[in-house]
Design a protein that fits this description.
The protein is of the alpha+beta class. It has 2 domains: 206 residues, no CATH class; 221 residues, 4-Layer Sandwich (Phosphatase 2c, domain 1). It contains 13 helices and 10 strands. The strands form 2 sheets. A 5-stranded antiparallel sheet has the order 1-10-9-6-7. A hairpin with a 2-residue loop joins strand 2 and strand 3. Helix 2 packs parallel to helix 5 and helix 5 runs parallel beside helix 7. The radius of gyration is 38 Å and the shape is elongated. The two termini are 61 Å apart. The model has no long low-confidence stretch (mean pLDDT 87).
Length: 453
């Protein structure tokens, strides 16, 4: 299969169409060989004095050599699809690539006529008559095309025997020519059928694999759409808090998640990271989101909620799945924030021009150990900025394998955190992207920024 083919191309292409393409690919190679052969034959016909030829024969051989040289240029373009398509030879090559079997038949017919015309009634005539069927052994075509090819060779040879002046006995020569063409035709039919079977078998296997890959691709696409639909459409419209967030999956289905749960004059900010990527992480993520939704009325005590979710993760899957999560409950009436964390990166608090790092150490949810979730309460004032994030930010690496690090996050928050939450979010993302450079994102990135108004 051509590496440029997409999975959809593989599924849409029928067996017959692919067989024709394989035949065409084979015939393109054999046609190149025939070009070389007839170029050499034309050159010999021009320079060799042992042939009995006149000026017309020499001109015919020279014209044929120029024709073959032109064929070489066309075949060069026919073999490549990445050449500019605005040139005449490129267009001719593209047309030849699409009609290679017809071009091959026409080329063989032209060379047969030229060879017999130059040979005349000499010994070369019998050589070409018997040699042409052998030269066709490398072609792989449909049954009708092969019959047309050898029918032309037999008819052309018979016509020259009848109207020519060759001294060879006509009946034995014709019989020999017929036998050679029948043998060549039989061999080509057998090899074409064998090639067809092998091609259809391989193509059927590739089509089955392509269909399975398309099914998996569609399922992953659906899972990605489902995961993205779990994220909030927009931040809550609170007069006392400016919130902006983003989640950038590294693969089709990521393991990061953020959410907001508003309860009167309180809002709970959630930032979560399920270990790994793919469908398994997406399923755990969905279960965690459902757990948060069911326990939203208990989020006045974030640590208790996380302990119950730990039981959910640890006891509902045979395979060990780990989840890191941070919850910040912002209480506007009491001007305080309650922070609980299970294995997630530190939460940043910006006050004026200083940045405080709040690291609460606990194992991720889902470990096979008793878990006690740490919790901390801090005072907040208007202008304070709270930043939650996943490890995909500070573990970002550049081309030199340098790590972005927590210090750089704190530096950006300190310098860019004086404005709106969205501006700080974008500043962090831009700085991470600039640091990573051309290196691909290898982990999910999730960021939640809240500015107390």
């Amino acid at each position: 299969m051509d590496l440029t083919w997409s999975l959809d191309d593989v599924v849409r292409t029928s067996d017959e169409e692919f067989v024709r393409r394989r035949f065409a690919q084979r015939n393109r190679v054999w046609l190149t060989f025939l070009l070389i052969f007839f170029a050499f034959a034309s050159f010999i016909a021009i320079v060799d004095d042992s042939f009995d030829k006149d000026v017309l024969d020499i001109l015919l051989a020279a014209g044929n050599l120029a024709f073959v040289a032109f064929g070489f240029f066309v075949m060069r373009y026919a073999a490549r699809e990445d050449l500019p398509a605005d040139r005449f030879l490129a267009r001719a090559g593209a047309w030849t690539r699409r009609h290679i079997n017809a071009v091959t038949l026409a080329y063989v017919a032209a060379q047969y006529a030229v060879a017999i015309a130059i040979a005349g009634d000499g010994d070369g005539f019998l050589g070409w008559l018997m040699g042409f069927p052998v030269l066709m052994l490398g072609l792989r075509m449909l049954v009708a095309e092969l019959f047309l090819l050898h029918g032309y060779l037999v008819a052309g040879g018979l016509l020259m025997l009848l109207i020519g002046t060759t001294r060879a006995p006509e009946v034995p020569v014709f019989a020999s020519m017929m036998v050679l063409n029948v043998i060549a035709l039989g061999f080509e039919l057998y090899m074409s059928r064998r090639m067809r079977r092998a091609t259809v078998t391989a193509w059927t296997s590739q089509r089955v694999q392509a269909r399975e890959q398309i099914r998996m691709r569609d399922e992953l696409r659906y899972a990605r759409e489902l995961q993205l639909s779990m994220l909030p459409e927009c931040a809550p419209d609170l007069g006392w808090a400016d919130i902006s967030s983003v989640s950038l999956p590294a693969t089709e289905v990521g393991g990061d998640y953020y959410d907001y749960f508003v309860d009167g004059d309180r809002v709970a900010l959630v930032c979560m990271d399920v270990a790994g990527h793919g469908m398994a992480s997406g399923l755990v993520l969905a279960a965690m989101r459902s757990g948060f939704t069911l326990l939203r009325d208990s989020l006045h005590d974030p640590a208790a909620v996380l302990e119950r979710l730990h039981t959910l993760v640890a006891e509902t899957s045979r395979r060990r799945m780990l989840v890191t999560v941070s919850v910040v409950l912002l209480d506007h009436a009491n001007h305080r924030a309650i922070i609980a964390s299970a294995g997630n990166p530190p939460v940043f608090i910006r006050r004026a021009d200083s940045v405080e790092t709040i690291a609460l150490y606990a194992p991720p949810l889902g470990v096979r150990l008793p878990v006690e979730i740490p919790q901390r309460t801090i005072d907040v004032s208007p202008g304070d900025v709270i930043v939650l994030h996943s490890d995909g930010i500070y573990e970002t690496r550049n081309a030199n394998e340098e790590v972005y690090g927590l210090e750089r996050i704190a530096s950006v928050i300190r310098e860019q955190g004086g404005g709106a939450a969205e501006a700080l979010r974008d500043a962090l993302l831009d700085d991470v992207a600039a640091f990573r450079g051309l290196r691909e994102q290898d982990d999910d990135i999730t960021l939640v920024v809240c500015r107390v108004v």
